[in-house]
User: Fold this.
Amino acid sequence: MATSEHGVGFEPADRLAQDRDSVRRRFWIKFKKVVAQLPFAEDLLAAYYCAFDRQTPRHVQVALLAALAYFVLPFDFMPDMLPILGFTDDAAVLAAAIRMVAGNITSEHREAARAALKRGVEAADPSAWSSQKQQA
Assistant:
């Protein structure tokens, strides 16, 4: 049985991170449901835009996709429905990933995150970032 390079408990996130389309689709479904509860929503969106930016180095994409996959998993170490504590583990995983790749999350990614939050999550087009980057 193969083990995760990240350690015990991260195998489902590692498998999910291999499927970029599934991470993208599941990210927006969960994000729309929980955005009001996330004090780190802007950081999460900036990480999302960085992970799907074609100019982001592959190793950075992999690290961020693994963190995003952990966020979208229906189960994790701390159930998300617990008040206050529910997203603590998600925030910790995301913070660790962002710390590792902070130099690759650009002002463009952060601006896209702020713009998406300003527009409102329901109006956010998950493919808008890809379309903007292809036109540039």
